Amino acid sequence: MKSNFNKHHPSIWLGGRENNFFNMHWDKGLDWYASKFPAKTRAHILYGEKTPSYIYGLDQPNVTSERQHCHQRMHQVVPDAKLILCLRNPIDRAFSHWNMERTHTKGYELTFTEAIRRDWQHMQDPSYQRFTDYDFVQKGFYIDYIENLLAYYPREQLHICFTEELKSDVENQYNLIYEFLNLPAPENPSYSVRSTDYNYSVEEEARQELSKLYVPYNERLFEFIGREVPAWLV
Asked: Which of 16, 27, 68, 175 lies most in the core, judged by the most C-beta atoms within 10 Å?
């Protein structure tokens, strides 16, 4: 599901493509990053960007990864940023990720079940490092990354929403985002949410295995936000 709330509010500007500055392109420097924004800004406009992979920053000793210092770099450059994190059921996120690799990576033939079992085997190796292209499973350990982010940013600068709730209650969810940004709701908005059709379907065996694996991480997340996400419990 894709939703671009910047298109629905006259006071929000977001860049088009993912910049990946704080993880992949840090060495290009701040001038490169600034070039992704309008040269002239207006006081009543909130400017931002959308790079979902920023959430995967994680301070891991003895790990070499472009994402390792992502959250530290973000805070260094934009300490007052308001951060919006939209999460989806980690099982569906893993499947979507696998589906993309299966569809677009030449020679990739693992089934979804095979892929997550290989992930699990890798995770048992003490030397295994997160953040390869095929980390289907660990990228759903959301609370780990949120806790790392909050080592740099205060809780009040983070808003968490859920794709399932955006889809079922879109106007209210957008209004919560505008409230977080201290913006009035737009007049007569027309919201649209696009869904992605996949070439494959989730194997029930894989869904059951992942459901058990994600329980402790989801429970930590629910405790953090103070409620459960009903769509994740089905």
From this structure: 68
